[in-house]
Amino acid sequence: MMLASPASNSLRRSPLLVCILIVLCLQSYYLFKSDSQTATNRVPSRYGPGSLVATETVIVTRTAVVGPSGTNAVLQKDTNLPVRGPPMSDVVLSIKTGATVIHSRVPIQLLTFVPNFPNTLVYSDLKSKIGDYQVADALARVSADEAGTTLKYWRKLQEIQAQNDGLSDSDGKMGDLKEGWALDKFKNIPILIETYQKFPGASYYIFIDGDTSLISSNWFPYLMDLSRKHDPVTSPIYWGSMALLNNVPFGHGGSGYLINQAALRKLIPQDKLYDEAFLLDLERNYTKLAASSCCGDLVLGQAMTDRAGVTVKHKWPWYQGETWWSIPYHESNFCSAIGTLHHVLAEDMQEIWDFEQYMLKKTGMDKWRPDGWTEQHEGGFKEWKFSNMPSEARSQDLKKYQDILFRDMYDYFIARKMPKEAEKDDDGTMMMSAKRVGWDNRSWKEAEWNKDKVKKEGTQDWQKDSILSEKNCRIACEVHDKSCIQWYYRDGICGLSPKFNYGRRLRNDGTYDEWKQLGVSGWVVDRLQSKIGEWRSKCPGTYA
Ligand SMILES: *[C@@H]1O[C@H](CO)[C@@H](O)[C@H](O)[C@H]1NC(C)=O
Ligand SMILES: CC(=O)N[C@H]1CO[C@H](CO)[C@@H](O)[C@@H]1O
Signal sequence: where (predicted)? Predict the structure, then answer.
């Protein structure tokens, strides 16, 4: 009442104000009406508001404008909710992490791509929670007598948790427990067993780490295509980025690996799925192997090969061990679709999600649905089974789906950050390159010249000279090696690369000279542009 009186005084004075107020009231009434209609027409979603029909979700905010019914609610459309493709309820996503890094990694996964996978499990080496997600302890069923002394770290974690000491490694006080690497190798087999036990009917199981990102929307058409060629229940699949160690092929864990139900059935026969004696035997055998082995993904590869008779298939670059700035771009991947990314920092994970959102809105693929998809699927009342797809979906032209490609990632993240023109060197001479000091563009990963390598017979003079100075290394790339598009120099090391890598700053503080010590990277600008043009010609178009 107190507030209303000055307003009513001025209302009496100004008929114009009254008119405006009436128009405002009518407007908000109709806004309210049309919004509540869209809201009720919607199929209620099992995946929570915003996950399926994000742009139609209505958010109620309170403002001071008085509505016709005496309430003061005004409805606004929130357009900042994520856009998502069809949810993948026939896929289980299993995330492996450790107690000292879980809080710096997993929450951002849960906030970004994870909701596209309604069946997600999180495993650590300590039972805990993130928000409403239960985090299971992957080591709970590991046989201590087989694992040996390494398990002391696991007990230490429990002790620290019980005593209320900090577990995260931010201040470096975790010592040997840092990243829990010693424990990590025991997790893969128990996680595999439990993931299968929890969802024995799923067509696919994707296993990733806490620092793995998925370009989640690419996965639905990918799994559709795969399911047409290999029935997920009868034709075994174990795909990933293959690594080899001691002649054992395995899917590299950080890059993520995909296993279908058929492959899991070969490892654990259906009638043994809840046979504790059998599962204990299986776990013991591979815990024993893990104790003398380096890594859990290798142990899993061995189990799949030995027991299931399924050897991993190398499906790089879909399964990717690097992230946007550390990937070597080349014709071999430029036009390929991205499945996973690895070594993703939390802030990069957000950017990768923003990138996926940007692309989905741009291509309109957020609205793409498989043929045979119904309102029932959309609302979550009926499950989409990749093992039993409708006939329309089996014959659908998947080429019409616009995947998100490495090219798009290059365009979105890198193109605008790249120097466009060659620069002058410190001594004033014109270079063919643009360079960055204190920067690592990872050229050394391709061909690195160093003092040992130049001793080899047949080494040419320019190769020997390349390790002597930054200038020589640059000239080796610009003049002598015609395939070279970027170089990296650091005290006695010269890297020359025919692939493009953006890289990153090695250190943020310090002097120019200190940065120089860390390394200098250069790109041969014209050559790089023409190479990118060449690679792009196989998949014309840009993200813009
Ligand atoms: C475990 O290893 C033993 C000895 O090699 C073998 O006989 C047994 O079949 C294995 N069990 C499982 C479940 O892998
Ligand atoms: C960040 C990064 O990958 N840095 C690398 C730079 O190059 C040297 C070799 O020249 C590597 O040892 C670093 O790890």
Answer: 1-31
pLDDT of amino acid 134: 94
CA distances to 27, 30, 124, 321 from 221, rounded to whole Å, are 43, 40, 30, 22
pLDDT tens digit string along 331-343? 999 999 999 999 9
Pocket lining: 295 vs ligand 2, CB cutoff 6 Å = no
Residue nearest to atom 5 of ligand 1 (CA): 285
| Ligand found nearest the CA of 441 | 2
- Which amino acid, 23? V
The residue behind tokens 């509540």 is: 36
Residue with tokens 């395995």: 250
Examine residue 5 and state whether it is found in any structural domain, yes or no. no
Q: How far apart are CA 182 and CA 159, in angstroms?
A: 17
Q: Other C-beta atoms within 10 Å of 364: how many?
A: 10
Same domain, 468 and 375: no
Closest atom of ligand 1 relative to the 285 alpha carbon: 1
Q: Which ligand is nearest to the CA of 495?
A: 2
Q: How far apart are CA 236 and CA 233, in angstroms?
A: 8
Query: Ligand 2 pocket test: which of 440, 450, 487, 502 has the largest number of ligand atoms within 8 Å of its C-beta?
Result: 440
Q: Is residue 75 domain-shared with residue 115, that is, in the same domain?
A: no
Q: pTM value?
A: 0.83
In angstroms, what is the span from residue 377 Cα to ligand 2's centroid?
A: 48
Of the residues 343, 443, 444, which should be mutated to test ligand 2's pocket, given the most ligand atoms within 8 Å of the CB? 444
Residue 250 has pLDDT above 60, yes or no: yes
In this structure, are 397 and 424 located in the same domain? no
Structure tokens at 108: 């951002």
Average pLDDT along the chain: 85
Q: Is the CB of 493 under 6 A from ligand 2?
A: yes
Query: Is ligand 2 within 6 A of the CB of residue 435?
Result: no
CA of 442 to the centre of ligand 2 (A): 7
CB of 440 shorter than 6 A to ligand 2:
yes
Identity (one letter) of the amino acid at 523? W
Long-range CB contacts (within 8 A, 24+) of 324-327: 324/348, 324/351, 324/352, 324/409, 324/413, 324/414, 324/502, 325/413, 325/414, 325/501, 325/502, 325/503, 325/504, 326/442, 326/501, 326/503, 326/504, 327/406, 327/409, 327/501
Do residue 19 and residue 155 come from a single domain?
no
Could you tell me the distance, in angstroms and rounded to a whole number, from the CA of residue 311 to the centre of ligand 1? 19
Ligand 2 in reach of 501 Cβ (< 6 A): no
Q: Which candidate, 223, 199, 216, places its Cα nearest to that of 51?
A: 216
Cβ 186 vs Cβ 142: under 8 Å? yes
Which of these three, 352, 381, 409, is where a domain ends? 409
How many domains is the chain built from?
A: 3
Q: Which tens digits make up the pLDDT trace of 155-202?
A: 888 888 888 777 776 555 566 566 567 899 999 999 999 999 999 999
